[in-house]
TrEMBL record:
Domain Tubulin/FtsZ 2-layer sandwich: 11-60
InterPro entries cross-referenced by the UniProt entry: Beta_tubulin, Tub_FtsZ_C, Tubulin/FtsZ-like_C, Tubulin/FtsZ_2-layer-sand-dom, Tubulin_C
Gene encoding the protein: LOC116556004
The organism of origin for this protein: Sapajus apella
Molecular functions per Gene Ontology: GTP binding; GTPase activity; structural constituent of cytoskeleton
Taxonomic lineage: Eukaryota, Metazoa, Chordata, Craniata, Vertebrata
Name this protein carries in UniProt: Tubulin beta chain-like
Keywords associated with the record: GTP-binding, Isopeptide bond, Microtubule, Nucleotide-binding
Length: 123
């Protein structure tokens, strides 16, 4: 268990810019002692951070020039899609990136959150 916690802490410190500072407990660790049949160990990671915005940015950067050239567009319009649907999807993707950036840049002073006590969490 110690190795798992250490590894998680190293990863979090290495990528600290992607973790919102106003969300102090954004990584949780749980261990199941019984691995799947035939394996010595198994792991799952579920993270809540803003790093996914980099993937969305890359997709947008690749999509925009292709869409401007109308590359492969005929395949989609031939099946009933409209160019406006692509424009709307591009706009939605850019809005999503902006929203992730906003959360990444947010600080604890900008947001007011109430801490739950242990009794409230159980209820």
């Amino acid at each position: 268990m110690e190795q798992i916690c250490t590894s998680g802490a190293v990863r979090k410190n290495k990528n600290s810019s992607y973790f919102a500072e106003w969300l102090p407990h954004n990584v949780k660790t749980a261990v199941c002692d019984i691995p799947p049949r035939g394996l010595k160990m198994s792991a799952t990671f579920i993270g809540n951070n803003t790093a996914i915005q980099e993937l969305f940015k890359r997709i947008s950067e690749q999509f925009t020039p292709m869409f401007r050239r109308k590359a492969f567009l005929h395949w989609y319009t031939g099946e009933g899609m409209d160019e406006m649907e692509f424009t709307e999807a591009e706009s939605n993707l850019n809005d999503l990136v902006s929203e992730y950036q906003q959360y990444q840049d947010a600080t604890a002073e900008e947001e007011e959150f109430e801490e739950c006590t242990e009794e409230e969490e159980v209820a």
